[in-house]
């Protein structure tokens, strides 16, 4: 991406989150971009950081939020802000429709009928309208260089947007972008196993041994409930519980904390690793209740929750159902033994 910078100097300045001055704002967004008879709008949140730009607004970085409640500038993801500081760019963050407080139906329940406008196409049109809106609000000239930034699902949005709207942006940063819609996504589990192996074969083997132990425990109903209680997960079925613990360990890999996870399991007997894993689960943002049928079926609006909306998106458009392979492959779980719904 050519942002007119000195190619001999790629260094980025260290930035303290407390020094960032972000402004929360709202715009009126179309509920349905594809039905011109539908004039309904909703409030969509966005944030602006203008302390680094030269006020000529020659460069704009758009950070795309995804399937979660957006907080504006993410204190754990300051790289885009560092880019804004280096290249004197205006930095803006847009919350995804149906997540957080950007709700097309306000605080009404998330019924399936009301979720019908939660589509990739509408999300991309939101971004297009937003860029035009910001250009007008800040009197940004046509030759300004817009760059979109996102990771995982927002990374895919960043890539798709660049492809579909090349006239509105000059480039896109699409980190770990899941641009291919895959129904039976066993390659995710494969990569998790490969990543564990980077710390050493012992790490993957330790994780696999832990899974085997859990699978064995779940064959005894009495032991199963007692073991689930250690995770505050007695409300989960065996299948849901296996998915829950799989999601916790995969999260460490996906967020760049694989080494930390492996070290917690290193040079420990199985019983000690289980205790370590219980502690990890207690501190994790992954909550057992989110894996129940009741949680997914709950239509009550809650700006802090996102599981129902994300399930709707994956079921209607994208797939990405994270199934598993065999222990004989670089996979933490075994497709035949894990008794996951996807292995049927």
**Which overall shape is indicated by the principal axes computed on the Cα atoms?**
globular
The separation of the N and C termini measures 45 Å
Radius of gyration: 22 Å
**Count of helical regions:** 11
Can you give the mean pLDDT? 90
Q: List SSEs in N-to-C order.
A: EEEHEHEHEHHHHHHHH
Major beta sheet, strand line-up:
1-2-4-3-5-6
Strand content: 5-15%
Low-confidence stretches: 339-344
Q: Report helical residue fraction.
A: 25-40%
The chain-level structural class is alpha/beta
Secondary-structure blueprint of this entry?
Blueprint: E1 23-30, E2 41-49, E3 59-64, H1 79-86, E4 90-94, H2 120-137, E5 145-151, H3 153-164, E6 171-175, H4 186-198, H5 201-217, H6 221-229, H7 238-254, H8 258-265, H9 270-283, H10 293-297, H11 307-318
Parallel strand pairs: 3-4, 3-5, 5-6
Antiparallel strand pairs: 1-2, 2-4
Helix pairs in contact: 4-5, 7-8
């Amino acid at each position: 991406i050519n942002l007119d910078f000195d190619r001999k100097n790629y260094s980025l300045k260290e930035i303290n989150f407390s020094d960032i001055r972000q402004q929360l704002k709202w715009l009126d967004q179309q509920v349905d971009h594809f039905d011109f008879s539908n004039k309904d709008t909703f409030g969509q949140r966005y944030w602006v950081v203008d302390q680094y730009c030269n006020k000529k607004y020659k460069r704009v970085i758009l950070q795309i939020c995804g399937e979660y409640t957006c907080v504006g500038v993410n204190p754990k993801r300051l790289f885009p802000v560092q880019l804004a500081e280096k290249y004197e760019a205006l930095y803006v963050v847009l919350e995804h429709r149906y997540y957080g407080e950007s709700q097309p139906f306000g605080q009404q329940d998330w019924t399936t009928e009301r979720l019908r406008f939660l589509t990739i196409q509408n999300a991309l049109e939101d971004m297009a309208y937003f860029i035009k809106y910001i250009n007008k609000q800040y009197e940004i000239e046509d030759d300004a260089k817009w760059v979109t930034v996102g990771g995982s699902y927002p990374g895919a949005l960043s890539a798709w947007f660049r492809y579909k709207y090349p006239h509105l942006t000059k480039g896109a940063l699409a980190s770990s972008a899941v641009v291919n819609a895959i129904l039976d996504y066993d390659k995710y589990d494969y990569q998790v196993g490969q990543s564990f192996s980077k710390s050493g074969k012992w790490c993957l083997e330790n994780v696999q041994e832990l899974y085997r132990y859990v699978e064995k425990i779940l064959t005894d109903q009495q032991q199963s409930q007692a073991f689930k209680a250690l995770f505050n997960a007695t409300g989960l079925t065996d299948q849901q519980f296996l998915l829950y613990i799989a999601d916790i360990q995969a999260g460490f890999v996906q967020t760049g904390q694989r080494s930390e996870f492996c070290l917690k399991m290193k040079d420990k007997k199985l019983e000690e690793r289980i205790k370590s894993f219980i502690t990890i689960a207690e501190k994790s943002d992954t909550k057992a209740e989110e894996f129940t049928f009741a949680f997914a079926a709950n239509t009550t609006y809650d700006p802090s929750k996102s599981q129902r909306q994300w399930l709707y998106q994956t079921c209607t458009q994208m797939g990405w159902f994270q199934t598993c392979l065999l222990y004989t492959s670089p996979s933490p779980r075994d497709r035949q033994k894990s008794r996951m719904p996807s292995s049927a």
